[in-house]
Amino acid sequence: MSLLDTPWPLPFWIAHRGAGKLAPENTLAAFRLGAAHGYRAFECDVKLSRDGVPFLLHDSTLERTSNGRGTAGDLSWGELAQLDAGGWHSRSYAGEPLASLAGLAAWLRANGHALDLEIKPTPGQERHTGETVGRVATALWSGADAPPLLFSSFRPEALEGARATAPQVPRALLLDTLWPGWDTVADHLEVAAVITNYQVMSAKLIERLHHAGRRALVYTVNDPAPAAWLQEIGIDGIVTDAVDRFAPQH
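The structure corresponding to this sequence follows.
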């Protein structure tokens, strides 16, 4: 049976890092704002604290999106939880904390929203991060009422780790370029989808992915023209920052 015949966890439109431009990215405030614009599926980045707690952050370092300093993975969750992850964005979000995966999961479960969880390891912790995220997510998303979940990553080792501890969660390989051997890695990891930079996607690539039984998604589309073109050529999903510009009808 083709992977295209298996249930797919996400609707077409996916809000990037919550509503990662209109609110501080990867915070619960951003997710709430995305939901207020009608989004029911979200993307975010997860990595590990020094003591192994999965939390939301894109960069390896803290400076860009918090008042912290240094490598985020060098701090305990207790230390990370004290940081201001909103003031950098705007005064109205000052004091917004970093979000733990457990906190996000509780919000998603309460609202029935789907998640594309990008495993974004601190360099050198790729497989360990994937294994830990898979194990923790399995507990957080347990039960028949758990909302849809997808793991994605640019790092094959992280997806390997997630497959080892959460084989039941579908996986997606993220690609910024079509590097040599990416399709062999996708086969090895048994990914349900490939998610590329939208400038890499083409009708030919969509056909190739569909022929292999995979779905084709893109990030990060914020303008109407490329969004319309991608829909015309058969894209299966779009990740966007522009939650105020695109109405997520499906």
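The CA atoms of residues 178 and 200 lie 8 Å apart.
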